[in-house]
Amino acid sequence: MEDLGKFIESLSSILWPAIFIWVLYYFREAFKTVLESAKGRKFTLKIAGNELTMEEVTEQQRTILADLQDKVAKLEELYESSTPTAFSLGEVKRQAFGKILWVDDKPKNNSFLVSHLSDFGLEVHIAKSTAEAKELLGQNQYYKIISDMGRPESDTAGIDLLKYVRASNVETPYFIFCGGWAARNMKNEFVAAGGNGITSSGTTLLKMLEIDG
Question: Which residue ranges traverse the bilayer (predicted)?
Answer without folding.
Answer: 7-27
